[in-house]
Design goal:
Strands 1-2 form a two-stranded parallel ribbon. The N and C termini lie far apart (35 Å). It is built from one helix and two strands. 37% of the residues lie in helices and 34% in strands. The protein has one domain. By secondary structure, the chain is of the alpha+beta class.
């Protein structure tokens, strides 16, 4: 069973978002389903 992770992000934090996603994948594998919610501000 997978669990869901929701991340709120915009263009300013794009590089940090990629690093976070890579870290989640390396440390948890397929345990979490990740959804990214974009916003403008």
């Amino acid at each position: 069973m997978t669990e869901d992770l929701y991340i709120l992000a915009n263009d300013v934090v794009f590089d940090q978002l990629i690093a976070l996603l890579n870290s989640i994948e390396v440390n948890t594998g397929n345990k979490y389903s990740v959804s990214i919610i974009p916003y403008k501000e």
